[in-house]
Design a protein that fits this description.
Largest sheet: 11 strands, mixed
Number of domains: 2
Strand order of the largest sheet: 1-8-2-3-7-4-6-5-9-10-11
Oligomer: single chain
CATH superfamily of the largest domain: DHBP synthase
Shape: globular
CATH class of the largest domain: Alpha Beta
Distance between the termini: 50 Å
Strand content: 15-25%
Structural class: alpha/beta
Number of helices: 10
Helix content: 25-40%
CATH architecture of the largest domain: Alpha-Beta Complex
CATH topology of the largest domain: DHBP synthase
Bound molecules: threonylcarbamoyladenylate, magnesium ion
């Protein structure tokens, strides 16, 4: 398949390009598009055939449900079986933005889109290109992250092209994703609101609106056999080709532990990589050293993380050490992605 690769102005998208992308979705095709979190791989959310096409383009198991993207609050009514008050309150505070809500689905949403579940994930992104595209596409765009299954979510159009060129109809190439981690998912179908995936909208921020919100216990206990409620969370996504270890502790101990390990690895012929705050990089000896930004700058770290993991692959690094974060707020989301990428291999020093 020939993929149309179209550059698009991030603030003032060209209506001609947007309408072409919208027409592709309406006629059953697939278009990758930028959002403020990561790039999405869009298809018509109300068509079972489009959902099947998305799974096949991604190489993704079809029991992993898709998020339905909307471009105005009113259109949610058609796809859910009633809006609880909590949903209105979260929408008022966080939409448009990097928050996904799980609600009971209406009959209009095919079960192919929701992986057979009777709930639906809904998100109203803030990115201007995403909004214009969703509207042109008819208002309901199902979209997982636009990576091949097993790769980190793409935060730059070049990675979408790497993964999807030849597999979908069109790629809208905008800016690098502002946030860089996928949306926070909150389930509103249980007695209390439950965070199924941490993201830029933190637990504390949600508790300001809904104080009884909890975090899915399958996310907290990394040793657990509990099945996460968001089916996607059970897959080992985001994994780099190399073996990744997260090292956490006081900065000096972390540096000496990693230095010892990279020395050992190098002498046994491995290619080593370190992911650490910019200011500490000079203290490491490794083949590839990539900075997360200033120490303590979680937003910079979130923005760069998936790019750093992809670059480690591009550099064929086979032993990667990443410095763990203290935790709390956005650090929770970053650590969640890092630990998943590391297959929960963490060393506390
Ligand atoms: O930021 C994002 O959310 C990006 C952009 C493109 O919007 N999308 C994204 O989609 O990350 P994806 O498919 O990579 O991740 C969706 C997650 C999966 O873990 C999936 O299992 C979960 O949402 N999910 C979707 N529908 C669900 C439902 N009805 N109940 C529970 N979990 C659901
Ligand atoms: Mg994904």
């Amino acid at each position: 398949m020939d993929t149309i690769i179209a550059g698009i102005d991030p603030e003032h998208p060209d209506p001609e390009i947007i309408n072409r992308a919208g027409d592709i979705i309406r006629s059953g095709g697939l278009v990758a598009f930028p959002t403020e979190t990561v790039y999405g791989l869009g298809g018509d959310a109300l068509s079972a055939a489009s959902a099947a096409a998305i799974y096949s383009a991604k190489g993704r198991p079809s029991d992993n449900p898709l998020i339905v993207h909307i471009s105005d609050l009113d259109s949610i009514k058609r796809i859910v079986r009633g809006m609880p008050d909590a949903a209105y309150r979260l929408a008022e505070r966080f939409w448009p933005g990097p928050l996904t809500m799980i609600l009971e689905k209406s009959d209009e949403v095919p079960s192919a889109t929701t992986g057979g579940l009777d709930t639906v994930a809904v998100r109203f992104p803030s990115d201007p290109v995403a909004q214009a595209f969703i509207q042109a596409a008819g208002g309901y765009v199902a979209a997982p992250s636009a990576n091949l299954s097993g790769k980190p979510s793409p935060t730059s159009s070049k990675y979408v092209i790497q993964d999807m060129d030849g597999r979908i109809d069109m790629i809208l190439c905008g800016d690098d994703s502002r946030i860089g981690l996928e949306s926070t998912i909150v389930d509103l179908t249980e007695e209390r609101p439950v965070i199924l995936r941490p993201g830029y909208v933190t637990l504390d921020m949600i508790r300001e609106v809904l104080p009884d919100t909890v975090v899915d216990s399958a996310l907290i206990r990394d040793d657990s056999d509990l099945r996460p409620k968001a089916p996607g969370m059970k897959y080992r996504h985001y994994a780099p080709q190399g073996e990744l270890v997260v090292v956490k502790g006081a900065p000096d101990r972390v540096i000496s532990y990693i230095s010892e390990k990279t020395a050992e690895d190098s002498s046994s012929g491995h290619r080593t990589g370190v992911i650490a705050p910019d200011s500490d990089l000079a203290r490491y000896m490794a083949d590839v050293k990539l900075g997360t930004g200033d120490a303590g700058d979680s937003e910079a770290c979130a923005h760069r993380l998936f790019d750093l993991l992809r670059r480690m692959d591009d550099e064929s690094v086979d032993r990667i050490y990443a410095v763990g974060l203290a935790g709390g707020g956005l650090d929770d989301a970053i650590m969640n992605r890092l630990l998943k990428a590391a297959g929960h291999h963490i060393v506390n020093v």
